[in-house]
Amino acid sequence: MSLLRLASASLLNRWPVALLTALAIALSVTLLLGVERIRSGARDSFVGTVAGTDLIVGARGGALNLLLYSVFRIGNPTNNITWASYQDIAAHPDVAWIVPLSLGDSHFGFRVLGTNDDYFRHYRYRDGQPLRFAAGGPFTDLFDAVLGSEVAARLGYDLGREIVVAHGLGREGFARHDDKPFRVAGILERTGTPVDRTVHVSLEAIEAIHVDWQGGAPVPGRRVSAEAVRAMELRPRAVTAALVGLQSRLATFRVQRFVNEYRQEPLLAILPGATLQELWAILGTAEQALSAVTVMVVATALLGMVTMTLASLAERRREMAILRSVGASPRTILGLLTAEALLLGLAGTALGVLLLYGAQLALQPVIDSRYGLYLAIGAPSRRELAMLAGVVLAGTLAGLIPAWRAYRMSVADGMTVRT
Amino acid sequence: MSRHLAIALAAVAILGTTASADEPRRELKAHEHGRASLKIAIEGDRVLLDLESPGANIVGFEHAARTEEERAAVTAALARLGEPLGLFMLPAEAGCRVADAAVEIVTEDNEEEHADAHGHGHDHDHAEDVRHNEYRAVYELACADTGALRSVGFAFFDVFPATEQIDVTVTGPDGQSAYRVERNAPRLEIAGQS
Fold first, then answer.
1. Is there a domain that residue B7 lies in?
2. Were A151 and a residue from A89, A123, A147, B123 both cysteine, which residue would form a disulfide, CB within 3.0 to 4.6 Å?
3. Do A315 and A394 lie in a common domain?
4. What is the pLDDT of residue A87?
5. What is the pLDDT at residue B22?
6. Does A177 fall in a domain?
7. Is residue A110 part of a domain?
8. Would you say A121 and A257 are in contact if contact means Cβ atoms under 8 Å apart?
């Protein structure tokens, strides 16, 4: 114990250097943990987005591609599913619910998703939470729209506001469905998923706004008014993809096979959670590279500490000699320097954790709204604690290098320093 | 041959060239020797295992068994496949027993035979033995405690030495996950979803 007191007193005596060294370790620890948190946070938010869906059905193509465009609105669908096939799947006895997803239009850069009320009933995110309305409710009229929280917040929309949907993804939209405006009927609560950045309308409405269009543009002289379109029978021709929930998980592979071997149309059914892991397998290499960089940064900081201690040994020879003269053995000298490394490591790690939490508190809202990445602020995970312990341990071991040198010097010098 | 029948046949021939519904579906599933897939679904006290493997992994050939030896090999393989707990070792605490096991051999290109039957001229130099076939087995297990299903040992690799890797998909109360199990590490730890 007295060794640790001695070590801390010795560090305090050289506090500017010690502080800078601890700060270097702290920054490296912040980086190490920060990268780990972003990594696990990204995984959790991706996994949380597909909770509760047994299968996703889309046109035949890559499994990953289907997952990305249907749930995360990344990339583009290769093909649509015809309405007849959609209904065949919906009629399968093992299917408990099916939610259609129809993509293709946008509103000020936010995707417009055609779906039905079942979407609000069956969609689940993080830990099986259902979607909740912050205001209003699901569709009651053909031209009702339900906004994700971020759409409403960013564009400053309230209930009842009229909005115009653009055809395709054009920001200002040279092709706009301005003859058939929508009314904001509901605004969803924040979910931390792509739902927040989506404008939801009914499948029939998607059909309705395209009823007088052909080849991606309105047909001149053939305008069908919003009133007239209400009287029409609006049967969707196709959907982009569908989320499927099953009566029992045991039926998962039976239904998957049914869809994959569906004769009339080449379709693909994927297990979203399993497909997501394929994505991690691909990203794993990049993650490892990133982790390797952070580990190198920690190593650099510890190397700095060793350099600092080694450099100070020459000027501390007198200090060592005095210690020897008051009865300290060369072993005590070894212990003292190792204890100093341990203390520096501990102080640096603690400071690093403090910095991390400070940075997270300050940056969380920005990361959340900018990147849609929700990083939970919680106690360090077991993995993180292990990493922290690893840093302290590595620091202490690295401290053995100057400690060993000091030991040798103090044996050689004895109680007098000859210069 | 009566004239009526001749006309009818001619009509079929003409229709056959235009109506795509009559055409055999041309589609081949990916098929890679050495690789098999195992899908596991867990719900309540039930576990469903769905195994698919090219015949090459199981018996070493994929044509219909012709010699006595080949027939014996198929019979032996079917018997081994009928005992899933000897292929996939589940933890004893789970207390699983086989409630149902169904094994079948699927030949992939029955549509070619279909085409032959219609007498369309086609010049495939496909001999019978270049066809692929697959062994498919669906097992239903009843387990005392499915929560104890945290690992699977793959004796499958020892029983069927031509198998190199198995792609495993799991869907259960903890979510869905996917793994790849290889011959040199024939064991799977089922983690939660992450």
1. no
2. A147
3. yes
4. 93
5. 55
6. yes
7. yes
8. no
Asked, for residue A279, whether it belongs to a domain, the answer is no
**Which chain A residue shows the shortest CA-CA distance from B177?**
A274
Q: Residue A268: pLDDT band by 50, 70, 90 thresholds?
A: very high
Does the residue A419 lie in any domain? Answer: no
Residue numbers of the domain that contains B47: 32-186
Tokens representing A367?
């990361």
How many residue pairs from chains A and B have C-beta atoms closer than 8 A? 49
pLDDT value of residue B119: 42
Residue of chain A whose Cα is closest to the Cα of B168 = A274
Residue B154: both structure tokens together = 């793959």
Q: Is the pLDDT confidence value at A234 over 90? A: no
User: How many independent structural domains does chain B possess?
Assistant: 1
Angstrom distance (rounded) from CA A198 to CA A107 = 9
pTM of the model: 0.76
Which residue is closest to A278 within chain B, CA to CA?
Answer: B178
Q: How far apart are CA A333 and CA A339, in angstroms?
A: 10
Interface test with B, best of A253, A265, A267 (most B CBs within 10 A): A253
Confidence (pLDDT) at A76: 82
In our burial notation (b when 16+ CB lie closer than 10 A, e otherwise), range A114-126 reads bbbeebbebbbbb
Inter-chain CB proximity B176 and A250 less than 8 Å: no
From chain A, the residues in CB contact with B149 under 8 A are: none
Structural domain tally of chain A? 2
A253 contacts on B by Cβ (under 8 Å): 39, 41, 48, 50
- Range of the structural domain that residue A319 is part of: 2-46+284-413
User: Residues B120-147: what's their mean pLDDT?
Assistant: 72
Q: Which of A270, A299, A327 is the last residue of a domain?
A: A270
Distances A17 to A136, A301, A308, A347, A410 between C-alpha atoms, Å: 60, 13, 8, 13, 23
